[in-house]
Amino acid sequence: MALAKRSVFIVSDRTGLTAEELAQTLLTQFPQVHFMTTVLPFVDSDHKLNEAISQINMIQEADGSRPIVFVTFVNADYRKRIEQADALVIDVFSSFLGILSREMNLMPSWQAGFSHGVIDQGRYNSRIDAIHFAMDCDDGVNPDAYDQADLILVGVSRSGKTPTCVYLAMHFGLYCANYPLTEDDYLDDGLPSTLDAYRDRLVGLTIDARRLHEIRQKRRPDSEYAKLDQCQIEVRRAEDLFRHRGILMADTSGISVEEIATTLLQKTGLRREYLG
Amino acid sequence: MALAKRSVFIVSDRTGLTAEELAQTLLTQFPQVHFMTTVLPFVDSDHKLNEAISQINMIQEADGSRPIVFVTFVNADYRKRIEQADALVIDVFSSFLGILSREMNLMPSWQAGFSHGVIDQGRYNSRIDAIHFAMDCDDGVNPDAYDQADLILVGVSRSGKTPTCVYLAMHFGLYCANYPLTEDDYLDDGLPSTLDAYRDRLVGLTIDARRLHEIRQKRRPDSEYAKLDQCQIEVRRAEDLFRHRGILMADTSGISVEEIATTLLQKTGLRREYLG
């Protein structure tokens, strides 16, 4: 049976990223339907709003079914006017804000803070600095900066260290370095001296050897580096080291960067620094 | 007047990141209130659920006002049981899924796809590869890989290139390199030869010279690099180059990485590759 089709719009006077992400999450729950999504960010003038409404109405006529429109508007007038489109309009913020407003007996300010703008310049800057820190301290580089690190991720090559560091910087403003374990690091059966001073900030990432083999095989097919044997040896040694030295360990096999990051925040009890 | 206080919980059987982000956005609209937020991810067993409910109820007694609880549960039983807590429970997905379900006359599957797990392994891998690409091609390094790039961001030091590349990789799986313009690049009044072959993939980032001065001043106080004069000269030269060579330009002054990224997607018409 052919998939049903349905047009979807994301319309916002800001980035629309919140609505886009939520829409994507919700729509995957209807796998019987093929959704065709159009994102219209920065709809912040009468002209752009009218164009957006026209576009939605045109698609409605072409499709013969009304488009689903997810909106996040700070502008109250636009929030109201978009409702006139021939569409199912889902206002992501309004319904929740109504509930919260009644609960706390307060009016929402409808101020900045929607859709990923810069709210608190200091906090925003520190998030950007955290991203640069992750770049500057990737892959064992720049250990002199480890005293500034919130976390130092340790693990074999391609165990997920780099993407996790970047994610924690981007979303939580955490300073994360990462250090790859190589053959040399096991010679004295201890932690590399670079890391020893920072033991309380270390997290060991581990991964199923077979999964690691697949990842490495894709990167450097049929290399010594990618061999299953090699992966098994490296993973076992790394896990032994983590256990032996009492280093917090997290398994990254088959889970996403977001899941790894959430697990690390939970295990380490690090604060979650909110985005501005 | 002292701020009112209110406790907030984010409870999920997955990462809870969607609920957390939405909650944060909504709660900033009530600046009169100081919210104390507790995140409880991976609540995926009866035991953990009962613990979460107990914790919420204890806080309710201690606060004397009911906590606000944002939940995203895939598990239907847990969705129902969390409602028994002495709290305002806001189920982020259910209300929207109800609306969508009625509109399309289909039942939601309540399948994977919630809360940032790995859904499509191929897509997930390419997102991870994109992050590694951004790391490997940061700051003008590795120009041999530019033929794989979706975008190459060009601009003076600290105009926002690196965080934007990382964001586009992380969230849209785009391959983005970045190239810093330095004094040497203007000698022949043209594009660096490294870039000339990829003109259709270039985006020039520009920034207000005063803002750049502030950013650099924080990084290397009172250096030649940070001087306002120097910033003005560099910005003017970069903008002249972009105009002269017809390079798409985006101003990053005072806007966030998310806003820059959204602007670039809009200007270039690059597809938005959804997260798994």
In short:
The structure is a homodimer of 276-residue chains. Helix content of chain A is 43%, strand content 16%.
| Oligomer kind | homodimer
Mean pLDDT of chain A: 91
Q: Report on the biggest sheet of chain A.
A: 4 strands, parallel
Main sheet: strand order of chain A: 2-1-3-4
Helix/strand order of chain A = EHEHEHEHHEHEHEHHEH
Rg over alpha carbons of chain A: 24 Å
- CATH 2nd-level architecture of the largest domain in chain A: 3-Layer(aba) Sandwich
Roughly what fraction of the amino acids of chain A lie in strands? 15-25%
Please count the helical segments of chain A: 10
Q: Kindly, what is the distance between the CA atoms of the first and last residues of chain A, rounded to a whole number of angstroms?
A: 46 Å
Largest interface, Cβ cutoff 8 Å: A-B, 78 and 79 residues
Q: Any overview of this molecule?
A:
The structure is a homodimer of 276-residue chains. The first copy, chain A, has 2 domains: 4-104, Rossmann fold; 121-268, Rossmann fold (3-Layer(aba) Sandwich), CATH 3.40.50. Chain A contains 10 helices and 8 strands. The first copy, chain A, is 43% helix and 16% strand. Chain A has 276 residues and is α/β, with parallel strands linked by helices. In chain A, strand 5 (151-155), helix 6 and strand 6 (176-180) form a beta-alpha-beta unit. In chain A, helix 5 (121-136) packs antiparallel against helix 6. At the A-B interface, helix 1, strand 2, helix 4, helix 5 and helix 6 of A face helix 1, strand 2, helix 4, helix 5 and helix 6 of B.
